[in-house]
Write a structure and sequence with these properties.
heterotrimer; B: mainly alpha; two-stranded antiparallel ribbon; 39% helix; flat; C: alpha+beta; 9-stranded mixed beta sheet; 3-stranded antiparallel beta sheet; 16 helices
């Protein structure tokens, strides 16, 4: 039982528990938001999950919710529950940097559609979270504003590119966060921080106002500590948007219903497909072990485990590292010093553009922009970009075939537990391997979830379990994820993230 | 395809409008070379019969009605301009020809 | 710069070489909003007042295609005899330039919506020429750079100012196939082609095609090759190097730029010097072209399909429906109207040249005779337009107004002179001719008692007139008619007045 008068306990609850408490009058939104702001002040110097704290606006939103609640005005489910937003989403009144120096202090004149939805849901926005620059990375070490530290071990990476959002959850700084996933940037940080992260079906959540990395791969998604919390946030974020031509014109999936269903009815008749090519060859031993144990839980819940093979997955990394840089090289051209952002002035506009981008972009970004320019340039486009798009078709076909044999596909989310800061920064290829299991879903556009599978015995660090569902079947992830989570939490005696070491509060 | 020489990287960096020092170029060519080798597999496996997928979820004819939506107030449009003059974005002189 | 400047005249150039040319026309569509966002598509607003995150290229923005632009583009493609592609994607054309907000232009690359067409162009002397159309594709316009400092051009400017109002405006780019075999009529054909495109877009109602406002822009390519010898196949001879001339913003400039370029290229070739493949700028003031910046290598646009937009897949049913809405080919329509109206060739040519065709047609449709319609539009209204230095279309008078005006004359309510006054009123914004006539009381006085009174009054001061009339000098009545007209401010029915005078004299008129 949470003592809601104790801020330390209040911040340990789940978002849905907070929602219940707010509606029951056990706590006010202002108190809840203040508790989180205080927590941020106490630990974020060490964690560095946040780039901007939205104190006044968050408290004002909270006060408005409290007043409406007192007046008996009807409120959305998550009204008054605070949320953190990855700094890739434009937010009016708050700087939006995408983790880059080239956008330092940029105040967007408009809100992203998802930002508008969060505001309409009356959720106080705690602030913007840290990320690898322009979402290019798997460790958040490529942020121009300094790395984020994994709350489980401050010397380790929190994953990337959305390390800030995931870390804020694991550090109890926020109960909910928004992330973006292009090749695993929601799911991999979730795995290495012991939290839950979901990448919806491509088009399930509007990208209008999300600073684009690779347009055909990017998706925004919910980050939370529990599957049910993620479901609630997914329902706030999702839906068709006329401002995004690629958004799906279909109803938002009933994620919360699916969670209830999975937690109540078990998994009898569900076929779970283990993808041979992602089954953990070369993965860390503890990661594979926890993965196998999770499969046992699924069996115990009534699921049938089958093996499937997706041979074209061996080309996924290659295709990804052609498509992403190619689209990014075009998407990032707009950072040219003319209308917004950094300007390093020279005597001509051409030189000004080049000098600005040289100073404003970090090494990883420059690497990928040059790579992308190469992959698209005359004479190479068919061999690289054109071929990579064909690999995409092969991967989709493999998934389609696999989904005939299984209702969901599973794998460990990422090959290792969180590695130490600085360990892979000078080896881009080693860094890219973090995403080997998550990339195929982005290439195919299908939805994926990572939820905690336990701690690796050899280092006591979090391991993630990945679920993949066919396109449009996001609800299925929540149903099966909820069932698995229930079994695991029962085994652990509580959510995994409550086992994280206590962070020293410096205030 | 691989063995990108420093001169190639220099040309690409210019095309991408990113100034690079000689040291940058050296470092970058080595790293890019390695990545290019890794992705070279891609052109081996994809053949004529396989169509390219540019949109993961197949859709078509997504259009909008020809009706006016509010524009930004000019103050908002120019608010983040590094330099503005007379309600327009000011840039240093252009070398290139008129479009 | 070689010494061989344009010392060779166009005719000599055409005598010595065989010209091959091509034209790219950009048509600005008159949709209400821009191609990919809901900002208003108008001209002449204050800078940066018609912009939004999308057309300003702000981070996070996304394009959404304007359905009306797609419809207009397809109708234009059909009018050019093109096939309409079943599935076409937009593509990004990547290059850095300050007036290009995203530093890429959304265009169409290898999948233009319209392709493989043919257009009939009728020259002034009635010769019919078929122009092959390669493609017509959709794209968005760029913003506008204004160069400050120096002479106002790009050379010597100290800085530039960018206005993105025009950025994102929908364009259709029409590209011809290389046009061979026109010989010395090349310049004439080029001009007629652009004029025909202009007529078509106006007939379709998708653009007003006004070149002077940039709604229709032409880039003209020209190359010269050796003339085929006897028995040699001209079409087998390789094309020469071509130049592309931009900034051609009038029909006259289309023709004259070809004259200049042909002469310039011929001079080089005759001097044994190579023609450089390059982009050049037309200068109206000096009637010449100058080279653009020479680039070390061709720009690499790195085209790839636009991931933020979905393919355009017009159903065959819809395309056929649109085909039914197409207006008649302008040349055919002109021939038909000329026959219907009974105008001579020269009269028709003048009507077309004065851009009065549509007005006359609409006036005739409203019930006026063709001759009367022509009289007003080519006469009084053309004079007024000329005086004010505007086009007929700028005058605040419609075909319905003119039909009404002529109707009043035909009914005898007003005469020609009063009609001119009524028209003056309409042009001054006082309302339709009928309204002006009523307000100003411009009705012809045909009430006999009023006229008789006026006649008697005039006769009272000139009594000798009656005697002269009785002596047989009927023209003496004129003085009384004049006096009565003056007294009634021109509103008397002159014919009736004369009858009354003669009756007073007891004489048959």
């Amino acid at each position: 039982m949470t003592d809601w008068t104790n801020p330390a306990e209040a911040t340990r609850a789940s978002a849905l528990e907070m929602s219940d408490a707010l509606r029951a009058g056990a706590i006010t939104s202002v108190a809840l938001v203040q508790a989180h702001l205080d927590r941020i002040a106490a630990v974020d110097a060490a964690v560095h999950a946040f780039l901007h704290i939205n104190t006044d606006d968050a408290l004002a939103t909270a006060a408005g919710v409290d007043a409406d609640r007192a007046a008996g005005v009807g409120l959305p489910l998550l009204a008054g529950v605070p949320i953190a937003i990855k700094d890739i989403l434009v937010t009016k009144g708050m700087p939006t940097t995408a983790g880059s120096k080239i956008l330092e202090g940029w105040m967007p004149p408009y809100d992203a559609t998802v930002t508008t939805k969060v505001r309409a849901a009356r959720m106080p926005i705690l602030g913007k979270t840290n990320m690898d620059e322009f979402a290019m990375g798997s460790s958040t070490e490529h942020s121009a504003y300094g790395a984020t530290h994994n709350p489980w071990d401050l010397d380790r990476i929190p994953g990337g590119s959305g390390g800030g959002s995931a870390a804020s959850l694991a550090a109890w700084e926020a109960p909910l966060a928004i992330g973006s996933d292009t090749g695993g940037s929601i799911r991999q940080p979730a795995a290495v921080t012991g939290t839950v992260g979901v990448k919806p079906t491509y088009g399930g959540v509007s990208r209008y106002g999300a600073i684009a990395l690779a347009s055909s791969l990017d998706q925004l998604g919910p980050c939370a500590r529990t599957v049910a919390d993620a479901a609630a946030l997914h329902e706030v974020m999702g839906g068709h948007d006329v401002m995004d031509a690629t958004s799906l014109d279909e109803p938002v999936p009933s994620c919360l219903d699916a969670v209830r269903d999975g937690a109540t009815h078990g998994l009898k008749g569900v076929r779970v497909g283990v993808v041979k090519e992602l089954s953990g060859e070369g993965y860390q031993a503890g990661v594979k072990q926890r993965f196998e144990e999770a499969l046992d839980h699924l069996r115990a819940a009534g699921a049938e485990i089958v093996e499937v093979s997706c041979p074209s997955f061996q080309y996924a990394m290659g295709a990804y590292y052609v498509i992403l840089p190619s689209e990014a090289s075009s998407n990032l051209a707009k950072f040219d010093s003319v209308r917004f952002g950094l300007r390093v002035e020279r005597d001509t506009i051409e030189k000004t553009m080049s000098a600005t981008r040289a100073e404003g972009f970090g090494d990883e970004v420059k690497r990928r922009l040059v790579l992308g320019t190469y992959a698209l340039s005359a004479g190479y486009r068919d061999a690289y970009y054109g071929s990579a798009q064909k690999v995409r078709t092969l991967i989709q076909r493999d998934f389609t075939a696999a989904f005939e044999k299984a209702d969901v596909l599973v794998s460990p989310t990422t090959p290792t537990t969180p590695f130490k800061l600085g360990e892979r920064i000078d080896d881009p290829l080693a860094m890219y391997l973090n995403d080997v299991a998550t990339i195929p879903a982005n290439l195919a556009g299908i939805p994926g979830m990572s939820l905690p599978a336990g701690l690796a015995p050899e280092d006591g660090l979090p391991v993630g379990f990945q679920l993949l569902a066919p396109a449009h079947e996001d609800a299925r992830l929540y149903r099966i994820g909820a069932a698995l989570e229930k079994a695991l939490v029962a085994e652990w005696g509580g959510a995994l993230v409550s086992k994280a070491p206590e962070l020293e509060e410096t205030r | 395809m691989s063995n990108l020489r420093r001169a190639d990287v220099a040309r690409l960096a210019a095309l991408a409008r990113i100034d690079m020092s000689d040291d940058d170029l050296d470092r970058l060519s080595g790293q890019i070379d390695a990545i290019v080798d890794a992705v070279a597999l891609v052109s081996e496996v994809a053949n004529e019969d396989v169509p390219a997928t540019s949109h993961p979820i197949p859709m078509s004819n997504v259009h909008r009605v020809d009706e006016v939506r509010p524009s930004l107030a000019p103050a908002d449009a120019l608010a983040a301009a590094p330099e503005a003059e007379d309600g327009r974005f000011r840039v240093p002189r252009i070398l290139g020809e008129e479009a | 710069m070689s010494a061989a400047t344009h010392l060779v005249g166009y005719d000599d150039a055409m005598a010595a070489f065989d010209p091959v040319f091509g034209i790219e026309v950009h048509v600005e569509l008159n949709t209400k909003t821009k191609m990919f966002c809901g900002c208003e598509n108008t001209f002449g607003s204050e800078p940066n007042t018609q912009v939004c995150p999308v057309c300003l290229g702000l981070p996070g923005s996304m394009p959404v295609t304007n359905e009306k632009a797609v419809e207009s583009a397809i109708r234009l493609g059909l009018s050019l005899g093109c096939s309409i592609r079943e599935s076409s994607r937009f593509a990004r054309k990547n290059y850095f330039y300050p007036d290009l907000a995203k530093d890429y232009q959304i265009s169409q690359y290898d999948e233009p919506t319209s392709y493989e067409g043919e257009l009939e162009v009728v020259l002034d002397d009635g010769t019919v020429v078929m122009i092959g159309i390669e493609r017509a594709h959709m794209e968005e316009d760029a913003g506008k750079n204004t160069h400050v400092g120096g002479s106002g051009g790009i050379q010597g400017a100290s800085h530039s100012l960018v206005d993105y109002n025009r950025g994102g405006v929908p364009l259709v780019e029409i590209v011809t196939k290389p046009i061979e075999g026109m010989g010395e009529r090349t310049a004439e054909v080029a001009r007629a082609y652009v004029a025909t495109i202009r007529d078509i877009v106006r007939a379709l109602g998708i653009s007003d095609g006004r070149m002077e406002q940039g709604r229709l822009r032409a880039d003209v390519n020209l190359s010269l090759r050796a003339k085929a010898g006897p028995g040699e196949d001209q079409s087998a001879i390789e094309f020469g190097k071509r130049s592309e001339t931009k900034n051609v913003n009038s029909l006259r400039a289309v023709e004259r730029s070809i004259h200049y370029e042909a002469g310039r290229q011929a001079a080089l070739l005759l001097a044994g010097e190579p023609v450089v493949q390059e982009t050049r700028h037309w200068h109206e003031d000096t009637s010449s072209t100058t080279p653009g910046r020479s680039k070390e290598e061709a720009e690499d646009y790195r085209y790839f399909p636009e991931p933020d937009l979905l393919p355009v897949e017009p159903s065959r049913e819809w395309v056929e429906e649109l085909r039914k809405t197409l207006p008649e080919h302008p040349a055919k329509m002109r021939a038909r109207l000329q026959a219907d109206w009974g105008f001579a060739d020269l009269e028709m040519r003048d009507v077309v040249a004065a851009d009065a065709l549509d007005f006359i047609a609409d006036t005739v449709a409203a019930g006026t005779t063709p001759q009367a319609a022509r009289k007003w539009w080519m006469g009084e209204l053309a004079r007024v337009a000329n005086e004010k230095d505007v086009a007929l279309t700028d005058l605040p008078v419609t075909a319905a107004d003119i039909a009404e005006l002529q109707g009043l004359i035909d009914a005898g309510t007003i005469n020609d002179k009063l009609a001119r006054q009524a028209l003056e009123g309409t042009l001054a914004g006082e309302g339709s001719p009928a309204a002006v006539v009523a307000a100003r009381g411009l009705v012809v006085v045909s009430d006999d008692s009023a006229l008789e009174a006026a006649v008697d009054e005039a006769l009272a001061s000139q009594p000798e007139v009656l005697d002269r009339i009785r002596e047989g000098k009927l023209q003496a009545a004129g003085a009384i008619v004049g006096a009565v007209m003056k007294a009634t401010k021109g509103q008397a029915d002159a014919g009736r007045v004369r009858e009354i005078i003669l009756a007073r004299a007891g004489v048959e008129g």
